[in-house]
Design goal:
Elements lengths: L10 H13 L4 H6 L2 E6 L11 H14 L3 E6 L5 H4 L10 H17 L4 E6 L4 H12 L3 E5 L9 H12 L5 H8 L14 H12 L14 H20 L3 H4 L2 H14 L5 H11 L6 H8 L16 H6 L2 H8 L16 H6 L23 E5 L2 E7 L10 E9 L2 H9 L7 E5 L14 H7 L6 E4 L11 E6 L16 E5 L4 E4 L3 H9 L12 H8 L12
Parallel strand pairs: 1-2, 1-3, 3-4, 7-8, 8-9, 9-10
Antiparallel strand pairs: 5-6, 6-10, 7-11, 11-12
Helix pairs in contact: 3-10, 5-6, 6-9, 6-13, 7-8, 9-12, 12-14
């Protein structure tokens, strides 16, 4: 028999706490005997990837009840990156990761009554935030996601719609109605963006039931996954298995292997180090580089190809990908299933070879994700090589420089960006943004201008393709070299050599540095200025300094 958290309270406070909970509708008998399980839900009506979570929470509760527990639900926030794209609101998306983690800590640790937790999540920053909170709080936890929506058209058809709108060939209404054939209903966007990447990595970390990260939102199996997660959390409570016993250094390694093999979102380079910090571990970018150099690209999920995560799920899902990667994985790492990764792999069949390539017959041999170094990025910059056309992997161009995303959009509309330009968008890092915006809209508009590239100290969506180099460290706000680039400078990007060089002499750079002044952006009086003061670099996961 476990000792429940509520029973550890002083007798008078325990009685008062039970009275408050009973007044909210929880039976006194349950409060006297059953483990109390927090159902941490990020449901809302704003984010399509979170709209299904209200229903799934009810399924989780059924599982908790069946296994002898008492579920108690509360909510936290969840922004939609798709809605926040292309305007100043995107500055809030990365900071709201910390807000979510803090809010969950405040509810669970602050109330002091919970024995376990099931976290319901979906999209980009919310899943990493839930992982951070689980690591920080460290009570038995399972994680449930909403799953992707099922598209009726291919990714390329969706891209063509956007291209036609940007060219003025179709109306806004036609774009909306056409896009709804791609986003066919509530659920996570079906491409391999940060949302699906981080949910797949959560499965590889062992924090989500095996085979469940990519089940479509509309499927009965999605409901079963939620219900079983409620059942399994009760086993974890009884056995005392906490997130820190699951999310070990070995589990983080497994997540990076999967990330590289599926060509996942570069935002994982922020979120996994941030998670490691919560686990009191270190996860430098060099660890990603070591893994990437040995791990083949096995899947052509958009933006690496023309398939969706729904295709990946039908083709065998994460377990079948892990099966191909057996030689690279730590097989003893445990999971919330009550099995280790090795056992899960042994119970898994080979995947559909049209979706999941064999280890010895990959789409690319290795280095689907790369870290570039050079005098423009002394501490590193990131590029998803798997989404870069072969003809752009050795690129030389003239810089055209902007101190914000808005300046870049205006220049595009004014026709100032030309073929051969390397578009430099700076002061969009964690401090300089502040908030480190994704520049997905920039990568979309540049597809209309051939032979161009973009580099930035900001971020990219997992859906971004083309020669897009981001996360440059140090950022412009720290007077990194990107702050000293001028229009017309020659920049050379060579992915084979993993270099990004600015063709400007050291003497000239010193002169420019002596004249540099910080570009201060208006950020109000609330979250953003506080974030700018406390946030660390992208190298450290953009975590808040203590």
């Amino acid at each position: 028999m476990i000792q429940r958290a509520i029973d550890k309270l002083e007798p008078f406070q325990r009685a008062i706490s039970k009275a408050h909970l009973a007044s909210a509708g929880i039976s006194i008998d349950a409060l006297d005997s059953k483990p109390l399980i927090a159902i941490c839900n990020s449901w809302n009506e704003v984010c399509p990837g979170h709209e299904p979570l209200r229903m799934l929470a009810e399924e989780v509760k059924k599982g908790v009840y069946e296994a002898g527990g008492q579920p108690i639900e509360f909510n936290t926030i969840a922004m939609c990156d798709g809605i926040a794209q292309g305007h100043p609101g995107m500055r809030y998306c990365l900071p709201h990761r910390e807000i979510i983690a803090d809010s969950v800590e405040a509810m669970v640790v602050g109330e002091g009554i919970f024995d376990g937790m099931v976290m319901l999540t979906g999209c980009d920053k919310i899943t990493p935030a839930m992982l951070q909170a689980a690591a920080r709080i460290n009570i038995p936890t399972t994680i449930v996601t909403s799953g992707p929506s099922v598209p009726d058209i291919t990714p390329n058809e969706s891209k063509e719609l956007r291209s036609k709108f940007l060219s003025g060939e179709i109306t806004e209404r036609e774009l909306i109605e056409g896009t709804l054939k791609y986003y066919s209903g509530p659920g996570i966007c079906p491409f391999l963006g940060t949302a699906n990447t981080m949910n797949a990595l959560t499965e590889a970390l062992g924090m989500m039931l095996s085979g469940t990260s990519l089940i479509p939102a509309s499927s009965s199996f999605r409901r079963f996954a939620a219900r079983n997660s409620g059942i399994e959390v009760m086993r974890l409570v009884k056995e005392g298995i906490t997130p820190r016993k699951i999310m070990t250094k070995e589990a983080l390694h497994n997540a990076i292997v999967l990330l590289t093999a599926i060509g996942g979102s570069l935002n994982a380079f922020l979120h996994l180090p941030a998670l490691a910090a919560e686990l009191e571990l270190k996860l430098p970018w060099s660890e990603f580089s070591k893994v990437s150099s040995k791990t083949p690209l096995l899947c052509g999920i958009v933006p690496n190809g023309n398939q969706t995560v729904v295709d990946l799920n039908r083709g065998g899902g994460v377990p079948s990908v892990l099966r191909e990667l057996k030689s690279l994985l730590n097989l003893e790492a445990i999971t919330v299933d009550g099995k280790n990764i090795g056992q899960i792999i042994e119970e898994t069949k080979d995947g559909d070879r049209n979706v999941i390539r064999a280890f010895d017959n990959p789409l690319e041999a290795a280095d689907g994700i790369q870290i570039l170094y050079g005098n423009l990025a002394p501490n590193g910059a990131l590029v998803k090589t798997s989404a870069v056309p072969l003809e752009q992997r050795d690129f030389v161009g003239k810089s055209i420089v902007f101190d914000s995303e808005e300046e870049c959009h205006k220049a595009y509309k004014d026709g100032k960006i030309k073929p051969g330009h390397i578009v430099v968008v700076r002061y969009e890092g964690p401090k300089g943004g502040p908030g480190m915006r994704e520049l997905h809209r920039v990568t979309e508009i540049l597809k209309k201008i051939p032979n161009t590239a973009v580099i930035t100290d900001g971020r990219f969506s997992g859906a971004s393709g083309g020669l897009s180099v981001g996360y440059i460290c140090p950022e412009a706000a720290e007077c990194g070299p990107i702050a000293l680039v001028k229009d017309g400078d020659i920049i050379k990007i060579n992915l084979k050599n993993e270099t990004m060089m600015l063709e400007v002499s050291e003497e000239e750079m010193e002169i420019r540095k002596s004249k540099w002044s910080f570009v201060q952006k208006e950020s109000g009086m609330g979250v953003l200025p506080r974030y700018a003061q406390q946030v660390s670099s992208a190298l450290e996961g953009a975590i808040l300094k203590h």
